[in-house]
Write a structure and sequence with these properties.
Helix content is 46%, strand content 23%. The chain is built from eleven helices and 15 strands.
Length: 389
């Protein structure tokens, strides 16, 4: 009898061990109004999206996907189409339950049994509201008379307040959940114009990047995302140290070789300042929201028209955060020269590199590649260009 009991105990232990060993994650649920549609489960790796499985839905809309136990929190897409999908954050052996409507999956779905997926849903819905509010501000901005600087400033203030409110929410979330991969997701959220909400070069934002990067690197040392975030923060700090060094050199001697800049233009193409070597270059710093910058641009257009054919070029750097506002100002003012930006507002890396304290600002570079003037405006710039060209 005892031998028989021992056998059953051993059998139960083996079966329990086997169940534990084979346990994995499951994503299941129901999508309404999706009869005949195909739903895909895709894994979001660091540098690619991999389709795991797919199934065709019937009138009931039920689906179920499963996989092996996850070694670390993992992002998935549950997708009906390229524009109709939701993001999930699964952990180890969770059974995530999803219920939604195919007409607007992201706006309608409910998620259960997954803290990470709930966090991602909250972050996405907040971002959706933020983008809606910003799109309205941009629409109002485009309809403004460009001479109405007071109204433009008010819209810019509202814009910055909306961004800061979202940043504060993300920062608080990360400090309260330093081990959550949802924090990683929040750090790299983008606005509709494809610019990041959080900025690793901003002193306060960098605290959140560093906090999460250090924490994830400690708890998930083999994770590609943890390693990438940790390296990303170190790279940002190295850039800031380089900028401080360059600033010291610029302050020590105005007549020196210029620091090179390489940033994206409005078309997303990288443009180097050094690509203009051999010309007289004005490195001009401005912003769409700065009235003085916009007035200075009118003077620069006259200088550009007069001297461009004689070897004068303008490399302009915007301190905007919104690509839409930046691009709209270029079109409104009909600026014909090179315009670039990293869309980091006052934390712009080129602005730090050149120690910019106010707008507008500029540096004049000779054909020999030496800085020969700083903050030359109006008649002073006209006279200097006349001497050189």
């Amino acid at each position: 009898m005892r031998m028989k009991q021992s056998f059953y105990i051993l059998l139960i232990a083996i079966l329990a061990g086997a169940c534990t060993k084979n346990a994995g994650y499951t994503v299941e649920g129901r999508i309404e109004n999706a009869d005949g549609a195909t739903v895909y489960l895709q894994r979001m790796d660091l540098n690619q999206v991999v389709t795991i499985d797919s199934t065709k839905l019937n009138a009931k809309g039920k689906f179920e996907f499963s996989g092996e136990r996850l070694k670390e929190p993992t992002f998935f897409l549950l997708k009906l189409s390229e524009r109709n999908y939701i993001t999930l954050l699964a952990d180890t052996t969770e059974t995530i339950e999803i219920n939604g409507d195919s007409k607007d999956l992201e706006g309608s779905y409910e998620v259960q049994n997954s803290f990470g997926s709930v966090y991602v849903q909250i972050l996405n819905r907040r971002l959706r509201k933020l983008n809606t509010a910003i799109d309205k501000l941009i629409k109002d901005y485009k309809q403004l008379d460009k001479r109405d600087s007071e109204a433009a400033k008010q819209l810019e203030t509202q814009y910055q307040d909306l961004i800061q409110d979202h940043k504060d929410f993300v920062g608080k979330f990360i400090m309260e959940n330093p081990r959550s991969y949802a924090g990683y997701y929040a750090l790299f959220q983008r606005l509709n114009d494809n610019s990041y909400v959080m900025n690793v070069m901003d002193k306060q934002d960098q605290v959140y990047f560093a906090t999460l990067g250090t924490s994830l690197n400690l708890f998930y040392p083999e994770s590609a995302r943890a390693k990438q975030l940790y390296s990303y923060v170190l790279g940002a700090k190295n850039k800031q140290q380089q900028a401080k060094l360059t600033e010291a050199v610029l302050n020590a001697s105005e007549a020196s070789s210029y620091p090179d800049i390489e940033e994206n233009d409005v078309n997303g193409e990288k443009v180097k300042l050094s690509s203009l070597d051999g010309k007289v270059i004005l490195v001009s710093f401005w912003a769409s929201w700065d009235e003085a910058s916009r007035k200075e641009n009118n003077h620069l257009k006259k200088m550009y028209k007069k001297y461009n054919k004689h070897g004068f070029e303008i490399y302009q750097v915007s301190l905007d955060r919104s690509k839409v506002l930046w691009e709209n100002a270029i079109k409104q003012d009909e600026l014909p020269w090179i315009n670039v930006s990293d869309l980091r507002y006052t934390e712009s890396y080129p602005a730090r590199l050149y120690n910019i304290r106010q707008l507008p600002a500029n540096y004049l570079i000779s054909k020999d590649g030496e800085i020969i003037g700083k903050n030359l405006f109006g008649n002073r710039l006209t006279e200097k260009l006349g001497e050189l060209l």
